[in-house]
Amino acid sequence: MAPTLAVSTVIFALRPDERSSAAVGTRPQLWLPLVVRLRDPFDGRWALPGGPLREDEGLADAASRTLLETTGLRPNYLEQLYAFGDADRPGAEHGRVVSVVYWAMIGAEEAHLATTGQNVRWLAADRLPDLAFDHNRIVDYALWRLRTKVEYSRIAHAFLGETFTLRELREVHEVVLGKPVDPANFRRQVEASGAVVPTGQVRTGGRHRPAQLYRYDTAIEPVDLGPLAPEPQKSPTSTEETP
Amino acid sequence: MAPTLAVSTVIFALRPDERSSAAVGTRPQLWLPLVVRLRDPFDGRWALPGGPLREDEGLADAASRTLLETTGLRPNYLEQLYAFGDADRPGAEHGRVVSVVYWAMIGAEEAHLATTGQNVRWLAADRLPDLAFDHNRIVDYALWRLRTKVEYSRIAHAFLGETFTLRELREVHEVVLGKPVDPANFRRQVEASGAVVPTGQVRTGGRHRPAQLYRYDTAIEPVDLGPLAPEPQKSPTSTEETP
């Protein structure tokens, strides 16, 4: 029997840690939505959202649809992660599946709007249980890509609003990297990279003193696909164009 | 009807330009083997080697098999490139295909041993005709990845023998990048990167004066797959381990 083709999506969002108090300033954590399986193999285990590729949809379209069905949202960032197709993948005895996996990021302003689809639960990325199939391995790889990429690309923006303070940007880096980042070094590196530009506006209020607002330089593409990059479009549903 | 899953491989080798004289020192060019199609769609056009994924083989195994059947060789370097699965890919009217594409590199010492399978021809990467399906786009993307990667990873090694002179390494960069590279700058960058180490041996003979031989630092993996990296193996057929 020919292998079945499925598309799954690792969806990352920064959300406050639900176990801590809701005090202002609670440091957010990386979360991802998972779907409980209701049949064998791996009945009752959590799995990445996704399913078979439909006849009339492209791979990235299938990943976007999965995200919409799981969270009610459109991604700020969507990129193909990897195709997993070892002949001995866990669960293969029930029929072999090749999974093309995408990873997506949801912005801070959208994350609290996320609906939770049926049988869906958000779990903290660093406290996952044993997932179905090889999905722990896939999440590990997606986390590694996120951590690698946050250091050299403007991907952290996908977790932020259109404008942000350097403190907010640094906190995204700290959450993603899982370690403190020195504020002065961070400011120096970000300013030297030229990746962010001051908006001339200032954020006031909250616990902190007024801070400069920045935005990313939109001339830099977050996903560098070279000759595969889509033509510039104005459609808000063009996931790979949205900064 | 569910989309069919195929695995194709872009195979790069550095070979002398067959149009120029065979004089010693002829600068090599990037070549890739293509297979002529003998049925619709795209009957008579050249296409990337590959075919449907077999029931019992993994994606990377299928890419290795394709390479072996097309050239009689095992790759020095094999990496997953991208999964192409737009619903409107050229040829979809004859049945939709999702292609997981790998790219491979063949070393200088193997390239001249390559056999040429039936209906196979080697074509120069910069002078390709109109290929079947979207294969020109796929080759363009693979070339872009090769050019991007040669500047920051030790991938050029896959085109060289175990040891090489800095001139040989620079010539690989020049062929891949398609432009001259300043020898003094190149030497400075390579030495600063720490990616190559002197062997203490010298190459004599040929047109040039004796030159230091170098090898790559094998502690650096050519394909950085993070948590997906295979366990170290001693099998010579382990394609992702071969430096």
UniProtKB/TrEMBL annotation, chains A, B:
Residue ranges occupied by any Nudix hydrolase domain in the UniProt entry: 16-147
Pfam families: NUDIX (PF00293), WHD_NrtR (PF21906)
PROSITE patterns: NUDIX
Signal peptide range: none
InterPro entries the UniProt entry points to: NUDIX_hydrolase-like_dom_sf, NUDIX_hydrolase_dom, WH-like_DNA-bd_sf, WH_DNA-bd_sf, WHD_NrtR
Domain of life: Bacteria
Region (Disordered): 223-243
Compositionally biased region (Polar residues): 234-243
Protein name per Swiss-Prot or TrEMBL: NUDIX domain protein
